[in-house]
Amino acid sequence: MIESILASAQVSSDLTLVNALLTILISFALGAIISFTYMKTQPMYNQSFTLTMIVLPAIIAVIILLIGSNIARAFSLAGAFSIIRFRSAPGDPKDIAFVLFTMAAGLACGVGSFGYAVLFTIALCLLMFFLKAINFGAKRSSQKMLKVTIPENLGYEEAFDEIFKTFKIDYELRKVRTTELGSLYELVYLVTIDHLTNQKEFLDAVRCRNGNLDITLTMSPTASEY
To answer: Is the pTM higher than 0.85?
Structure first.
């Protein structure tokens, strides 16, 4: 009975050398287009990741070609890939989306749907460029961490209230500690700054108030820093 099930599941494959070469070449071309789109829409990227996106569609396409409609071969390949462990830090959601993008292109090439693969790739790449052009999802304000050192004779509770109100900055005093044997105070604020705010003018105003002592503005603070 088992033999009859396997025999019925095995369909003759029409895989030829020309078909395989065409699939691989188209997969490489689509991977290169996706990788180029990623580089143009991502301000910072890793070279190894861009190279991976070129190769990944061809790898997926070859796997699909090898499996075909053979159930036994599909289970054997699944078992082989299950022993692979990828140890890397969780990536950016956009990076994960591009990985799925390249895999989908490879799958479409592997099943022979070259037209749909090209249409799908071009449509999504154009969408990525459009979203990049309109700066979709960008926040109008961002949270930053401000560290200010003040002399001991300056009251820290309301030292910079006037400056924060002038520049329309929401703030919260998170930490106060003494430095230099108690002669100075270090204040840590969590501030929300609008994208139109001139940060240099803001820091100059703070610098004039604290007597030109140390000031640090952290652009992307972590929770542990404050």
So the answer is: no
